[in-house]
Design a protein that fits this description.
Layout lengths: L3 H15 L4 E6 L12 H5 L4 E7 L2 E6 L3 E6 L5 E5 L17 E7 L4 E5 L6 E6 L23 H8 L6 H6 L9 H11 L12 H27 L7 E2 L25 E6 L2 E6 L5
Antiparallel strand pairs: 1-6, 2-3, 3-4, 4-8, 5-7, 5-9, 6-7, 10-11
Helix pairs in contact: 1-6, 3-6, 5-6
Bound molecules: zinc ion.
The site of zinc ion has 7 residues, from loops.
Length: about 280
């Protein structure tokens, strides 16, 4: 499942191809993904210049000249493919349409943006650009982990008195937006905090220290995504999924990478999600 760094990588990959370009044709090949598409979506996209691409949490927001914003969520298995860009940024030929190509945007530059999603947990919606974060998917989101409003004071206050495990608290999108399972596991490993610890029982200093660690973990993954974009010319035109090595995620029974620890990575299930951690150095 794409997490924040993957979504940011998709945004950065799409931006040079879409920003300033006009959608000359929009193929909407089915009525819905996870939810029904907004009414007349193809008509509302056709002829629109894309003013800019933003990201909020795991949502990509394309601001259109009409004053509407196209919200895109990749869901579990959504992929964005770029083909046929004559500017030479990306050189992939237009592929034959595939079964799960649900939405295809043809840009006036000749580039084609394809949204492919076999499991259809993705979503697209149109909202008024000036409605801010009032959309139902955005309204309850907490601060962006890489933004200024996410800071030590916010996190300490948000976790105060919480009886839930720190793992679940950091996955709570109202506390911090866009953090997913993988990067919470990695964050807690670096902070040497057990995912089982009750959030409210962890000292303020250790909670505060999570803020720069979260930024580092996400920042490094976004950087890895950036490298994958530079290799994009050789790839197949698909954005956003890149090779990245993790310290604990997916490393059950492997040796802990903390110097001198000697432990092994354990896997437990919390709220239906796997937590990977070292029982020796994460307390
Ligand atoms: Zn360890």
């Amino acid at each position: 499942m794409p997490e924040l760094p993957e979504v940011e990588t998709v945004r950065r990959g799409l931006a040079p191809v879409m920003e300033g370009a006009v959608i000359v044709q929009a193929d909407v090949n089915r009525p819905d993904l996870r939810w029904p598409f907004p009414s007349n979506m193809a008509d509302r996209l056709t002829g629109q210049r894309v003013l800019g691409l933003r990201r909020r949490s795991k949502y990509i927001l394309l601001d259109l000249a009409s004053g509407e914003t196209l919200l895109v969520h990749l869901g579990m298995s959504g992929r964005m493919l770029i083909s046929g860009d004559p500017l030479g940024t990306f050189v992939h030929e237009h592929p034959a349409p595939e079964k799960h190509d649900h939405v295809v945007l043809h840009m006036d530059s000749g580039a084609r943006i394809t949204f492919n999603d076999p499991r259809r947990f993705g979503a697209m919606d149109l909202l008024a650009t000036d409605s801010g974060d009032t959309h139902k998917l955005l309204a309850s989101l907490g601060p962006e982990p890489l933004g200024n409003t996410f800071n030590e004071a916010h996190l300490i206050q948000a976790l105060q008195g919480r009886n839930t495990p720190i793992k679940s608290a950091l996955l709570d999108q109202r506390i911090v937006a866009g953090l997913g399972n993988i990067y919470v596991c990695e964050t807690l490993f670096r902070a040497r905090i057990s995912p089982r610890r009750k959030a409210g029982n962890i000292g303020a200093k250790r909670i505060g220290a999570l803020v720069p660690i979260i930024r580092d973990v996400l920042g490094e993954a976004i950087e890895a995504g950036g490298s994958s974009l530079r290799d994009f010319r050789q790839a197949d035109g698909e954005l956003g999924y890149f090779q990245h090595s993790f310290d604990v995620y997916g490393r059950e029974d492997k040796p802990c990478r903390t110097l001198g620890c000697g432990g092994h990575i354990s896997r437990i299930v919390q709220s239906g999600r796997s937590s990977f951690y070292c029982t020796i150095c994460q307390r």
